[in-house]
From TrEMBL:
UniProt xrefs under InterPro entries: Ald_DH/histidinol_DH (IPR016161), Ald_DH_C (IPR016163), Ald_DH_CS_GLU (IPR029510), Ald_DH_N (IPR016162), Aldehyde_DH_dom (IPR015590), ALDH7A1-like (IPR044638)
UniProt protein name: aldehyde dehydrogenase (NAD(+))
Organism for this UniProt entry: Naumannella cuiyingiana
Record note on quaternary structure: Homotetramer.
Keyword terms: NAD, Oxidoreductase
The keyword Lipid metabolism is assigned to this record: no
Domain of life: Bacteria
Amino acid sequence: MTLPGTATIAGSVTDALAACGVAPDRIGGDFATRTPITGGALPGATGDDAASIDDKISRAAAAFPAWRDTPAPVRGNLIKRWGELLTEHKADLARIVTAEAGKITSEALGEVQEMIDICDLAVGQSRQLYGKTMPSERPGHRLMETWHPLGVVGIISAFNFPAAVWAWNTALALVCGNTVVWKPSELTSLTALAADALLGKAVAEVGAPADLHHVIVSDRAGGERLVDDPRVALVSATGSVRMGREVGPRVAARFGKLLLELGGNNAAIVTPSADLDLAVRGIVFAAAGTAGQRCTSMRRLIVHSSIADELVGRITAAYGTLAIGDPEAEGTLVGPLINEKAFEGMRRALDEAQAQGGKVRAGGERVLADEAPEAYYVEPAVVSMPGQEAIVTEETFAPILYVMTYDDIEDAIAMNNAVPQGLSAAIFTGDQAEAELFVSSAGSDTGIANVNIGTSGAEIGGAFGGEKETGGGRESGSDSWQSYMRPATNTVNYSGQLPLAQGVEFV
């Protein structure tokens, strides 16, 4: 496969940035960006120093009171317009996502569609920020709960979903009455500028306060400022477990609120009753899609010993048909790893797996190295393991699928749960009892547990997040809006008397 030239990619990105309305002074700066498609340089971004970061947080904090007092359905009008602009510029934004993150075109378009979908959900949510009314034990009293905005919400996002995860947080944070400051991955700053420009256009068109949102182009230091600033009421951080271990105590030390979405080590159980055609399709996409660089990527396959040889043979055959290369080329299914560090991590994991008794059944090799020596394309790997050895319990952000066997469904569920991470899991089965067991409290301990679909590809309507080292946060649908608000319990006495609760008498 012939890869495009870096100049061609850079020109396409420049055009897309202009179409999204990115101000010229934000492009061409000394904050370096590159494309994993070739490893070459993209137009730089203008970075933020300590003073500009402080100024952006200050301006967001100053804008909060007026936005807090704006009726929630009016706040929803902003998100409605933002969703319309995202729809209009879907292809432009997806082009930048592909150039910076290396996603194939359909996945990049899917990421922007996630942004559009969360806007739809948030617009509806703006009229449904419900509280409860509870019966009071005291006559002539009303007991209720109300929900109130927090203030400035700080968002730290990762390269693999360079815009969608920010949109999950931002759409709900804004309709809940908060302001937002975003520190994107330094690997995808141009995507952030384009996404933020479209939100800025919506703000201007509906007449909302100009300082509702800001983006920080910075290295790690910018994220640390968000984490440590007491004006930032909530820090929503997506990234590695290592990052979460650093962020969590720092936010807790200042009694800030925290929403963490960290690592995943996601498994699928395949039982003898499973539809293997369905299972193969679900497994291959979940394990090889996005070059294994989703937090929900399938990394472990726990298959019944009676069907293991057949299933692994079918998976390795399917892997042999995967087109690897230019993510914008028609028919490509696997794009590049984000950088050399990711490739080195994959090689180390494969070496360690073999040292622990594993056998590489397919893939694992680098391809297109002669054509693009600074880009890292790999064949997705399938590795048979004798058991769930130490390497299997670690998350490697690359397309490695470890295969293990089981004989008893309870043992399979125990293997599924026997890792530190707890994001997503799946079971492929035609047995209703097995399916119900898997999603019961005695089944998978993950925040997402699926039946007869893979571990990735969550919908906006359901809450997204996991347990254990995944962080425990919830984003997107269901009641996730409550993460961006504070509850208050209110008692209203209209009786003209002053009875005390629990029958206490105090005269």
